[in-house]
Structure prediction request, 209 residues.
Amino acid sequence: MERRLTARGRERRRQLLDFAAERFATRGYHSTSVTDIIEGVGVGKGVFYWYFSSKEELFLEILREAMVELRQAQQEAIADEPDPVHRIEVGIRSSLVWLDTHRNLFALLEFAVGEERFGPALRHGQKIAVADVARQVEMGMEQGRIRHGNPELLTHAILGVTNQLTRVFIHERGGRGSDIADDAVAFCLGGLLGQDKILSSALPHTTVR
Prediction:
């Protein structure tokens, strides 16, 4: 049940969310208890259960907020970009920077993928993300900027590349999102714009025997 909160109540709820997100990311969801969270924040169980009915509800709210904040960062970044191809590029860059800045939240999103109880929330977030990018891909196709193809397939390819690069080069290897953005953009836009043809024409011609 949604409660009307005072400024102090909103601050306390924020403390619970922030501390829990960090603890879940460092120690794991299953290894973190409600007791760990309330002791870390310095409140009683009654306070915790005033805001959240369970640890699962708290985690779901962290996931929901993470997906909303990532989308907001993307939308703010592309707000002044009229060109759909540029919006895709800026969207990729802003995503990598946000995921770099919020590594603990990316870790929680990755964990949630393997937990069916969190599946509906993730699928809802993904549906919104796919719709956002697909809209730009379709617009680019209509303008003749992007080669014709399956917009949904191309959208999933863009999101898949972004997530995989984040997983390996940021989360596992400790790299920076801004450092891998150029290659990520070049790879994705190369596929969207059909630049593979340009690359192929630049290769030495060989005779097939």
About this structure: DSSP finds ten helices and no strands in the chain. The chain has two domains: 1-53, 62-202.
